[in-house]
User: What shape does this take?
Amino acid sequence: MANHLIKNGYNVYGTDASESGISNANKINPGRFFIQDLSSDGLPSGLNQQKFSKIISTEVIEHLYDPRKYISFCKNVLLKAGGGELIISTPYHGYLKNLVMALTGTLDKHFTVLWDGGHIKFWSKRTLTKILEEQGFQVIDFKGVGRIPYIWKSMLIKAIIK
Assistant: This one.
């Protein structure tokens, strides 16, 4: 996604924990992608002087042991620029979707513990909104993505911090 945005004229930098992913992305747009250690409190050294008014986080928060620390990290990055927007995508797990999975016998497969490096947190609109608001964000938009309403595959939440 970042390379697509760069191709369309946006000033984008990307971070990830995957060295191979960063290496591949930098082959297309060198110097725009950096290894991010989410256990640290700061941006990678190549981005320390940058100010960011928007963070797009795709399919990250469901893999984290400490999502509050991650939201705090995002808040601090945005406040360095005087505030901004945080857009998060994550798999959707609302009541109706979970009920449908339970009734169709797919719950165990979906919440498998056998996927090394897989999802460890399962978010609904309510839970993701709550953790954002705890850190001072205001949620301004929500979209369910994929499938039919309330059985969505993923969700997007946009929040602002001032």
